[in-house]
Amino acid sequence: VLFRSLMQGPQLRAGVDHIWPRRYVHGLRGMGRRLLQAYSVLGSLVSPLPAKAMFLYSRNFVPAALSKLSGGKFDAVVINGGDLLWVLPKLPAEVPKIRLAHNVEHRLFRAQVESQRGLAAPLKRVLMRDCRKLERFETDSVRGVGNIICISPDDAAYFRELAPGARVLHVPPVFAYRPWTRPR
Predict the structure, then answer these.
(1) Torsional class of 81: left (φ above 0), alpha (ψ -120 to 50), beta (otherwise)
(2) Range with lowest mean pLDDT among 47-51, 53-57, 121-125
(3) Which helix (H) or strand (E) holds 38?
(4) pLDDT value at position 27?
(5) Residue 180 DSSP symbol
(6) 183: left (phi over 0), alpha (psi -120 to 50) or beta
(7) Is the CA virtual torsion 93, 3, 17, 36 positive or negative?
(8) According to the model, what pLDDT value does residue 34 have?
(9) Strand pairing of 167-170 and 97-101?
(10) Where is pLDDT greater, at 6 or 103?
(11) How far is it, in rounded angstroms, from Cα 9 to Cα 1?
(12) Residue 50 clears pLDDT 90, i.e. is over it
């Protein structure tokens, strides 16, 4: 929301067009979300994509994105988060790409898996294997993007070291709305 408002603000007056996978826009709640998460983990066992990418993967999304790109003049494609990096190889090479990095996905995922107490050993092995796949996926994708905007200075330093030729910008989060509070 903030990025879009900055781009469309009086200084830049940029046109912004959105293309989202259906699951990203509508979101899933409750049991539907859990089933899709389980499907994503199982699918990642036979897919080159890690589970986090499988969660938002959509065959229909790529043709829709390419159709929209071919229909107009675009200066850049902004990829909002690591969950959508699977679309990178399908985008035209001549269109610059910008990744908004909310965090280093594989580090966050590893911390989540490691924090789970009582997780069955076979499931933990599957998730740690997927974490390593996510790390390779994210690392390869970061090197292919070339332009990264981070909200954390630590993440920006990590990406600068990982992809020395990339342009990495640290922009601290500025929230123009009241933060959500978690009920007790």
Answers:
(1) left
(2) 53-57
(3) helix 30-44
(4) 62
(5) P
(6) beta
(7) positive
(8) 83
(9) unpaired
(10) 103
(11) 12
(12) yes
Report whether pLDDT(42) > 80.
Answer: yes
DSSP letter, residue 117: T
% of the chain surpassing 70 pLDDT = 84
> What pLDDT is attached to residue 72?
67
Helix (H, G, I), strand (E, B) or coil at 99: strand
Nearest to 20 by CA among 84, 72, 82, 89: 84
Nearest one of 64, 75, 67 to 15, comparing CA atoms: 75
C-alpha to C-alpha distance for 49 and 134, rounded to whole angstroms: 8
Cα angle value 67/69/75 (rounded, 5°): 175
What was the pLDDT predicted at 25? 44
> What tokens were used for 73?
């003049």
- Diameter of the chain measured on Cα atoms: 54
Cα–Cα distance, 120 to 128 (Å, whole number):
12
96 burial (CB, 10 Å; 0-12 / 13-18 / 19+) is: middle
